[in-house]
TrEMBL record:
It comes from the Bacteria. The lineage of its organism: Bacteria, Pseudomonadati, Acidobacteriota, Terriglobia, Terriglobales. Residues 62-123 form the SnoaL-like domain. This is Nuclear transport factor 2 family protein. Signal peptide: none annotated. InterPro entries: NTF2-like_dom_sf (IPR032710), SnoaL-like (IPR037401). Gene3D superfamilies: 3.10.450.50.
């Protein structure tokens, strides 16, 4: 199935979004003002979490204090209309000790992230994050 230019633009936006996270640049411009991010329960966040734009940006800023670097490798991506889904492998290098891990340790997780777009921006993001044991 061939992607439309519209759908390809959504996948390009996701790649740019991940690159922005990796470089530590603010991700605010990628989202609608009323965006919602839902992180389903996982090892790092056992109760899951719902974030609006303000809380998502705050969490991102906190993450910069916990990680010295992070990387997203997109394994697969698909887009249909105003929706896209990405399978990614995430790695993050700790700046501080976390649980049994020391500073400098690398965490790894497998993400399935589902996006919904409006006006060329992310309006809804669902994260299914599966972290390797630490």
């Amino acid at each position: 199935m061939t992607l439309t230019d519209f759908e390809q633009a959504h996948l390009d936006l996701i790649r740019d979004y991940f690159a922005s996270i990796e470089s530590g640049v603010s991700t605010r411009a990628f989202f609608t003002e009323d965006m919602l991010q839902i992180e389903f329960p996982n090892r790092l966040n056992p109760k899951g979490q719902r974030s609006d734009l303000v809380s998502l940006i705050q969490r991102s800023e906190m993450g910069k204090k916990v990680l010295t670097s992070q990387h997203y490798e997109i394994v697969s991506a698909i887009a249909q209309g105003n929706r896209a889904a990405v399978e990614a492998v995430w790695t993050g290098t700790l700046a501080i000790p976390f649980g049994a891990l020391s500073a400098g340790s690398v965490m790894k997780a497998y993400f399935a992230i589902f996006f919904q777009f409006r006006d060329g921006k992310i309006a809804l993001q669902h994260n299914y994050d599966c972290f390797e044991p630490w």
